[in-house]
Every structure is written in structure tokens, then in C-alpha cells.
Amino acid sequence: MYTRIHRMAIVLLIVILLGGCTWKQQKESSDPASPQPVLPGEYFMTHHLMTDQGLIRTSFAEQHIYLSESLGLWMDYLVRKKDPNSFEKQFHVLQDQFLLDHHLLSWQIESDQKSQVNALVDDLRVIAALQKADHLWQKPAYQKTAKDIAQSLKDKNMYKGILSDYYDAAANRTSHTITLSYIDPAAIKELVSLHIFTKQMASHQLAILKHAPRQKGFFPKSYDIKKKAYSFDQEINMIDQLYTAFHADLANVHTSAIMKWLKTTFKEEGKLYGRYKLGTLKPSVTYESPSVYALVILYALKQNESEFAKDVYERMKELQIKDPLKPYYGGYMNEKDTHSFDNLLPLIAERELLNESVIQ
């Protein structure tokens, strides 16, 4: 009896504390009429992966590594949540920690050392988040920073008129390959709205997606700009394929074969794996990935497949620690470790499901 009462008291205390966190963020919100509660995944991020300086650790490893990927995904989430105060803090993290002298982002900070290489996909994601934030809260500094990054992408990160994977400032070298999943039409559209790209320049980027060949409905991994050649991997990396399919859909490229395969496979297996063999479409790994499920959810919502998105969400949530008494409540753990990517993407997907009223 004592143990049961004691356990209930602890659960009640955690609920009260979470409610306090929620109340505080609601109070600070610029839109008090529609307060946004703190999700379990957000609680995990801020209590276990975020430092006092606002940097997001990639994992629990003793040697802390911070990625521009994590920064961009977190900024994306905060815009979707409409959380101006937290976004402003991340804006300062962007300016103080990640921006290099030439206005591109360091893709990785390790041992307080910034890499002199950027990652196109992360820079584009940050530009899009800054533009959305400026639209929401009318802060000119957001658009100015977005424009500085965009200008540097145009100046440093293009090969023969096409955005490429990275620019290495130390070697003054630009990649001549573009990973197809990096081509984000929504972010490229922002380059046009910032008057950095013309519509014709934007069209040249999207043409890589539109002209891509398929194998069993799936996209190539990359395009060699120098050789004008696409390249397929023998394994389907679901993260790459889902990002590419989502972006292709935004560019009005037909992707129904992928959606059909996802729905059929999930219905038959009750799950999706992280990688599949391209030749047989059989799993090549035994693990499930919360980030894969998150991207399926976002892609399904874009395709107006809300019931499928909800089904996948329920499977994704089975991988999350939902017991408030567990040390890593709200996290997606891999035994004793985790990865920021596998927590941030599910958080974005869950927030989008709430925004679309697919879940309550």
C-alpha cells in the first residue's frame, strides 16, 4: 500500500512540475489565446540534451558534439510551436556559435572547435526557419541573417550554377555533388523571396529532382554536377528517401509509388525498418528508427494521408519512454544512449500532427 501511494505521489509531483513548465511557457508566449503545452519530447530535449548555453548535444557521449543539423531542427520546431522567446535564444546560439566569418554555418562544433565546412541542408533549414520567424514576429534581424546566409550559399556553395553539398573554407573548395534529399523547394523558394536567386536559378535546382530516374519508384542518392550523372545506393536509406520524396512532392513530382509501398509494407509488417535492399525491397537491418517514422508522418500529412500518419505516430510513440518515473522520460533511447536527430524529428512530427488537429 505504501509503495503504491508513494508511486502515485511521485507521478502527481512530476505532472505538477510539467504543468509548471507549461504555464511558464504559456505566460511568455506572444499568443496567450492559444498556449502550446510542453510535449514529453521537448521536456527530454531541454533537460537532457541542451546545455545551459542553449547548445544541443548530439548524444550522451563524454565528448560533446554540437551539430548545425540539431540547431536547424530545433529552430524549425520552435517556429511550428510559435515560441518566440525560445527561438530568440536559438538565434543567439546561431550567431554566437555556428556562423562562420563568411556567413555559412559550421556543420559541427567539437571540443569548442568549429569545423570550417558547412552542410547545405542545414543552412537551408535555418534560412527557412528564420524567414518563418520573421513573418511571425517581425524581427528584421532574422531576415537579415537569412539573407546573409543565402548570399554566402550563392557565392560559395554552388558548382556550375547548382547548389552542392558543402563548401570547405579551409581548402576553399566546393563540392561538385548534390545529395537529392538536400534539395528543399520550400527553402529554395525563400532564396527567391530574399532576392538572392532568380526564379530561373531556383528552377535549375529543382530540375535535378524533376529529372531524376527511378528504380522501383525510389530516387537516386545523389547527382554529380560535374559528370551530370545520378547515383543509386544498393541500400535504400529511408531517411534520405523520405526527405527526397517529401521535397519532390513539394516540387510537384509524382511520388505515389513510394507512398503506396510505405502503406503496404507498414500494413503487412506493422513496422518500418531503417534500411532496405534496393534489389529485393527486403529489410537490410533489424532496427526501427523514430526519425524514419517522423518523416513518414510528415510525408503522409503532405499527401493528405492523415489516418496513415496517425497509425505511424502510434507506432513511433511505442519507441518513446512514456513513464514519467523513468530517468529519460520523453526520450527515444537506443539502450543507454540517444541521438538528437532521433528526438528532434519525432518532436516536429508530433507538433505538426497537433497543428493539423490529427491528434489532440
UniProtKB/TrEMBL annotation:
Keyword Iron-sulfur among record annotations: no
GO MF, one annotated term: hydrolase activity
Transmembrane segments: none
The organism's place on the tree of life at top rank: Bacteria
Hydrolase recorded as keyword: yes
Entry-linked Gene3D superfamilies: 1.50.10.10
GO terms classed as biological process: carbohydrate metabolic process
SUPFAM superfamilies from the UniProt entry: Six-hairpin glycosidases
Keywords: Hydrolase, Lipoprotein
InterPro entries: 6-hairpin_glycosidase_sf, 6hp_glycosidase-like_sf
Protein name: Glycosyl hydrolase lipoprotein
Source species: Bacillus pumilus
